[in-house]
Amino acid sequence: MAAAIAAGFLAPVIPGLAAVAAAQEQPIAPEINPPGDIPDSQVFVSYSSPLGFEIQVPEGWARSDRADGAGFADKYDGVDIAIAPAPMTPTADSVRQNEVPVLINTGRAVEVSSVSNVRLPAAEAVLIVYACNSEPNEVTNKQVRLESNRYIFYRAGRTATLTLYAPAGADNVDQWRLMAGSFRWK
């Protein structure tokens, strides 16, 4: 959850009004010509974390390191990776029961469209596909509707939660496939 908050697309879990207001927020209509397409010519570089994972990320995106992982952002696009202890391997069913309600209750107008087990080159994962509102821009207060793919990987008592997000309608399928497929435990 801390990673999602740091990634800038979930409301902080603060007792009282802030969490309630975010949970009651209405979905924003997607923009007609959404910003946020990652260019087909984008160069990707390897990021190796001291927390025991590596992934290909877009070159030139702003990086923010945290104790539990890292985030990379460019305008409304982002990649976030968070490591957390986990007692067992997550499944689509366990994620539906445990993660999805938290995501819906603490996020900004979250609408989950699917939860499934997926096989990627390095490992199996659980994939949550959802839409949510972005955090308001600090200067303009503008928000956009985001689409997100969240992959939850597991190994040796830890999960790595990889979240990819962009404005709804942006064409990032190939770039997201590259990033998710490049995730490796070290």
Helix content: 10-25%
- The secondary-structure element order is HHEEEEEHEEEEHE
| Number of discrete helical segments | 4
Give the overall form: globular
Class based on secondary structure composition and strand pairing:
alpha+beta
- CATH level 4 superfamily: Mog1/PsbP, alpha/beta/alpha sandwich
Largest sheet, order of strands side by side? Answer: 3-4-5-9-8-7-6
The major pleated sheet works out as:
7 strands, antiparallel
Give the tally of β-strands: 10
**N-end to C-end Cα span:** 23 Å
How many domains would you count in the coordinates?
1
Keywords:
3-stranded antiparallel beta sheet; 186 residues; 4 helices; 40% strand; 20% helix; alpha+beta; Protein Transport Mog1p, Chain A
